[in-house]
Design goal:
The protein is of the alpha/beta class. It has 5 helices and 11 strands; from the N terminus they run ββαβαββαβββααβββ. Helix 1 packs parallel to helix 5.
Length: 266
């Protein structure tokens, strides 16, 4: 029997734009942000309120970022989040937000702005994922007693991670369950495991991903098109959520060296 996850119906017909927190605006995050703009335009064309994105990144643009990430030489020295968001706001008439700080992973330090329907992480860092997982669990528990679903409701976490020429995308649900309809001849799945709940996650260790002195050195750590390819494939999952209202895959593994994409079934 086919397994299917039906998307939280609020995302399909909200009264306000769906809120998205993008954490990390570097190699993958900058590419994901460009995909989100295209998605917002497409959703608007379909009569949907679209997206409201807040980007978090404390880092400044450096010379090795130019060419592999979506920055120009003129951007060097600017905050990554502010640089990208201000450019897209001007080009597309958006009101998206940039925060030039790390995401506040302690619930007591968070504000309403830090709550979102969809969290997207592009940090490639085990420690930051663990901290965000704790935040999401704590925030979801604190808001569980509130009635209804709105722009502050935490619903999904989409995580991107990669090495030099391999990577993965994992979509998980933040609440314990997402209400599912009764569908004949299909098994509906109310909960999707987050990246931190994946088998073998506890054995993952961070590689050295510190700053590079040149573009050539940066390419030794992450190949030129791994980030953009992963961003396109991962954002296609989000697009299917909005376009079709259900998913039969919750992520994927990518190997650019062998040109193979292996999907993760729901």
């Amino acid at each position: 029997m086919k397994r299917v996850h039906y998307v939280e119906k609020y995302l399909l017909a909200p009264q306000h734009p769906v809120t998205v927190n993008l954490i990390g605006a570097g190699g993958t995050g900058s590419q994901v942000l460009s995909c989100l703009v295209r998605m917002d335009m497409a959703l608007a064309g379909l009569g949907h309120p679209g997206l409201h994105v807040t980007v978090y990144d404390p880092d400044l643009v450096e010379q090795p970022n130019v060419g592999r990430q979506l920055f120009t030489p003129a951007d060097i020295g600017l905050n990554k989040a502010q640089c990208l968001v201000s450019r897209l706001n001007a080009a597309f008439g958006l009101g998206w937000e940039a925060v030039s700080e790390k995401f506040p992973v302690k619930v007591k330090n968070a504000t309403e702005r830090d709550m979102a329907n969809i969290f997207i992480t592009c940090t490639d860092n085990v420690a930051s994922r663990n901290k965000l997982d704790g935040f999401l669990n704590g925030a979801a528990a604190a808001m569980r007693c509130e009635r209804g679903i709105d722009h502050r409701s935490l619903l999904y976490w989409l995580d991107f991670g990669n090495r030099q020429n391999t990577g993965q995308v994992v979509l998980g649900t933040i609440p314990d369950t997402i209400t599912q309809p009764t569908v004949e001849d299909m098994e509906t799945v109310a909960s999707l495991p987050k990246i931190t709940e994946m088998p073998g996650y506890d054995d993952v260790r961070d590689d050295d991903s510190g700053p590079s002195c040149s573009l050539a050195e940066a390419l030794e750590k992450q190949d030129l098109f791994i980030n953009s390819t992963l961003a396109q494939l991962g954002c296609n999952l989000l697009w299917k959520m909005f376009r079709h209202g259900h998913l039969d895959h919750r992520g994927l593994y990518l190997n650019l060296e062998t040109m193979v994409v292996n999907p993760m079934a729901v």
